[in-house]
From TrEMBL:
Record keywords: Cell cycle, Cell division, Cell shape, Cell wall biogenesis/degradation, Cytoplasm, Peptidoglycan synthesis, Pyruvate, Transferase
Source species: Lactiplantibacillus plajomi
Subcellular location: Cytoplasm
Annotated function: Cell wall formation. Adds enolpyruvyl to UDP-N-acetylglucosamine.
Stated name of the protein: UDP-N-acetylglucosamine 1-carboxyvinyltransferase
High-level lineage: Bacteria, Bacillati, Bacillota, Bacilli, Lactobacillales
Family: Belongs to the EPSP synthase family. MurA subfamily.
Catalytic activity line of the entry: phosphoenolpyruvate + UDP-N-acetyl-alpha-D-glucosamine = UDP-N-acetyl-3-O-(1-carboxyvinyl)-alpha-D-glucosamine + phosphate
Binding locations of phosphoenolpyruvate: 22-23
Pathways involved: Cell wall biogenesis; peptidoglycan biosynthesis
One term of GO molecular function: UDP-N-acetylglucosamine 1-carboxyvinyltransferase activity
Predominant location category: cytoplasm
Residues where 2-(S-cysteinyl)pyruvic acid O-phosphothioketal is found: 119
Length: 438
């Protein structure tokens, strides 16, 4: 077990490099299953535990997967006979493995995937995925904790999603690439990661138009092949560093961050008095001495991303006055707040909303991450807290952030990642060096 120890109070300054997006690369890896010939070569791949898990799922399905971690490249060869079953041991580790269902069904006419359970942030059903696959002609059966889809031939269909689910959009879009005829999907997710997926699918031979809008049109093709693709930058990692820079009154250039992908965050940060400057090299964030309070509501893209909600609450808690945040996407994404209460945060949760009474005089404490973005939020709180903050449960952080502590240390944070002895004794004086250790 490891933990991150932060000694708060440093302004972050300098440049930070952003990785390829977790939420783009996971469905893209699954898309590799669709190539019956050639190799799919991905660059700008983030080194994350979720990527290792997805690689293992693909290997289990009989793909050859080679991860060159030094060059952040993955090569997938799915030209051999694939197997159709993704068992519980993988799906339970990572819900996103459900997106192998669409490609397997398209390629083999058969997919058997363990039902993903809920997770810390919500129940997360897959009814919309299954409705869409069934509209394409699949027979869906649920038994023994598995969902099994089969079809002798998938056909195009008109599909309206009740909610613009990211995963359902990806699964159905991938299944439709090899279906006979045209599929029209309405009310689909419009996230940049959907656009990135559509881009690679088109390079692989698919015929998809409308990615990034509410309607996708997919003209089925008989087969697909490998291609080269560079994964889009991670807007959530970029946003996380933007918040860290702002909250510490820092001055940080988030290199190569794409402002277009982070519009709602940029808009809210400016409203709070943060300088956000779009430069050729990326996005520069300069934090003010005092933050103004604001209201935020999470929504599907292009609304404010739920994956930035926990980090945003730190900014709001630091603001001079009362802020409001309403979480509309997941029903249980406030678990980080109870940990923050232990760091002096004052707030009231009312259903899907939280009222935060700033400014918070954060004080260091031992806190445990409950999910991926909660982990990042707790570390950011530690950056502004008096004294030492110890964040445990880093397996969540590692799902979505590569070298988080090292990147923060390079920006001037006093932060270390250490092996956690059962009873860690926090130093009572002095500061940590900037050198991060494992
Ligand atoms: C790997 C990945 O890309 N994960 C992202 C993806 O998750 P994911 O694809 O799971 O998120 P969805 O967009 O599907 O879920 C959004 C909401 O729709 C509900 N829903 C979803 C599918 C369904 O069949 N039925 C249903 O009711 C979910 O419970 C949730 O309340 O989008 C989320 C919303 O932006 C992000 O927080 C996650 O980081
Ligand atoms: C919720 C997230 O991811 P996942 O859907 O993989 O759990 C996230 O990236 O914040």
């Amino acid at each position: 077990m490891e933990e991150i120890i932060v000694h708060g109070g440093q302004r972050l300054t300098g440049n930070v490099h952003i990785e390829g997006a977790k939420n783009a690369v996971l469905p893209i890896l699954a898309a590799g299953l669709l190539a019956s010939s050639g190799q799919t070569r991905l660059t700008n791949v983030p080194i994350l535990s979720d990527v290792f898990t997805m690689n293992n799922v693909l290997r289990f399905l009989n793909c050859k997967v080679d991860f060159d971690e030094i060059n952040k490249q993955i090569t997938i060869d799915a030209s051999d006979q694939l197997s159709y079953e993704a068992p519980f041991q993988y799906v339970s580790k990572m819900r996103a493995s459900i997106v192998v269902m669409g490609p397997l069904l398209a390629r083999l006419g058969h997919a058997k995937v363990a039902m993903p359970g809920g997770c810390a942030i919500g129940t997360r059903p897959i009814d919309l995925h299954l409705k869409g696959l069934s509209a394409l002609g699949a027979t869906i059966e649920r038994h023994d904790g598995y969902v099994e889809a089969s079809a002798s031939k998938l056909h195009g269909a008109q599909i309206y999603l009740d909610f613009p689910s990211v995963g359902a959009t990806q699964n159905i879009m991938m299944a439709a690439t090899l279906a006979e005829g045209e599929t029209v999907m309405e009310n689909v997710a419009r996230e940049p990661e959907i656009v990135d997926l559509a881009n690679i699918l088109n390079q692989m031979g698919a015929r998809i138009t409308g990615a990034g809008t509410e309607t996708l049109r997919i003209e089925g093709v008989p087969s697909m092949h490998g291609c080269d693709h560079s994964v889009v930058q991670d807007r959530i990692e970029a946003g996380t560093f933007m918040v860290a820079a702002a909250v510490t009154r820092g001055n940080v250039l988030i290199e190569d961050a794409i402002a277009e992908h982070n519009k709602p965050l940029i808009s809210k940060m400016r409203e709070m008095g943060v300088q956000v400057i779009e430069e050729d090299a990326g996005i520069r964030v300069i934090g003010p001495d005092q933050l103004k309070p604001t209201s935020v509501k999470t929504l599907p893209h292009p609304g404010f991303p739920t994956d930035m909600q926990p980090q945003m609450t730190i900014l709001q808690l630091c603001a001079q006055g009362t802020s409001l945040l309403t979480e509309t996407v997941f029903e249980n994404r406030f678990m980080h707040l109870e940990e923050l209460r232990r760091m002096n945060a004052d707030f009231k949760i009312d259903g899907r909303s939280v009222i935060m009474y700033g400014p918070t005089d954060f004080c260091g404490a031992q806190v445990a991450a409950t999910d991926l973005r909660a982990a990042a939020a707790l570390v950011i709180a530690g950056l502004v807290a008096r004294g030492y903050t110890e964040v445990t449960n880093l397996k969540y952080l590692d799902r979505g952030y590569f070298n988080f502590h090292r990147k923060l240390a390079k920006l001037g944070a006093h932060i270390k990642r250490v092996k956690a002895p059962d009873e860690t004794v926090l130093p009572t004086h002095g500061t940590y060096t900037n050198e991060a250790v494992e």
